[in-house]
Design a protein that fits this description.
EmrE-like, transmembrane helix, globular, EamA_dom, 74% helix, single chain
């Protein structure tokens, strides 16, 4: 069962880029972001009610709000960058998140990070730079690809803030109600500007467009629980390899569904930061710092 849950979470994350790109043909970035949280809360709430018979959200903890702000920023910048760029572009979020978490481990939590950890972070960021560059001349890079890479970098930092909040909140809350609390606050935060924004509907309203928004919500609400349950049942080496393979699936889906060009630079950068993930997660020599994993 652990392998099934791990595969479900991995495949779910790999489809995010394609789903966001599809939804952007019907609604703008604000509604996509709101829908990801709103439907995520609905499906996660239903799951918790079925499992525990009651909901126990908490809003008094400051890290609930910090985590919600981080996750909100993650989705806002990620959705905007996917809309402007390629569907596979969100593969950049994970290596930026990894590097940001390692820096936070050393600066905020004063935890030692090994040479292996810093080397892995360097590989992750090098992979991001290679993909962001993609062989383009400087003028084109600054006007197009560079902007989307910057947006994905902001998205990765937001995701890292969310992960840090999870680490702290899990000491006093279960994962289900913790995520429910964070996503409820995130829904409120991203909904605030919607009434003041024009042109929220960008194209014809279709069944497929609505379906993509709902499925994005399912991924938001349930994929983190699937992954949490999987790591309890599957060896960490398998989690590291299979979990990070979502980036390869993301590239495959963007090519199959949108025929987006996959250059040698994209593939090279991808394998560079995947090497960083492997270096970070597979035991080698002395044990790496806890945040590195």
């Amino acid at each position: 069962m652990g392998y099934v849950l791990l595969l479900l979470a991995t495949l779910a994350w790999s489809f995010v880029g394609v789903l966001v790109k599809s939804a952007s043909a019907m609604v703008d970035n604000s509604l996509i972001t709101f829908s990801r949280f709103f439907f995520g809360v609905v499906f996660l709430g239903i799951f918790i009610l079925i499992k525990e018979k009651r909901l126990r959200p908490r809003f008094s903890l400051k890290w609930i709000w910090i985590g919600a702000a981080g996750k909100g920023a993650n989705y806002i910048f990620e959705n905007l960058a996917i809309t402007l760029g390629y569907a596979y572009g969100n593969i950049l979020v994970q290596p930026v998140q990894t590097a940001a978490l390692l820096i936070a481990a050393g600066l905020l939590f004063k935890e030692p990070v090994s040479r292996q950890g810093w080397s892995a972070a360097a590989l992750c960021m090098l992979g991001v730079l290679v993909i962001g560059w993609n062989g383009l001349p400087a003028r084109e890079l600054l006007s197009g690809s560079g902007l989307t890479t910057l947006l994905f970098t902001f998205a990765g930092i937001g995701a890292a803030i969310h992960v840090l909040s999870q680490r702290i909140l899990l000491k006093s809350m279960d994962s289900g109600n913790m995520n429910l609390s964070v996503f409820m606050v995130s829904t409120l935060l991203v909904a605030l500007p919607i009434p003041f924004e024009p042109h929220q509907i960008t194209g014809p309203v279709t069944v497929w467009g609505i379906t993509t928004l709902v499925v994005l919500g399912v991924i938001t609400g349930l994929s983190f629980l699937w992954f949490a349950e999987a790591i309890k049942r599957v060896s960490f080496a398998v989690v590291a390899v299979v979990g990070n393979s979502s980036v390869l699936f993301s590239i495959l889906w963007s090519y199959l569904f949108f025929h987006e060009p996959i250059t040698g630079y994209v593939l090279t950068g991808t394998f560079i930061f995947l090497a960083g993930f492997v270096l970070l997660n597979v035991p080698y020599g002395k044990k790496t710092a806890k945040p590195a994993s």
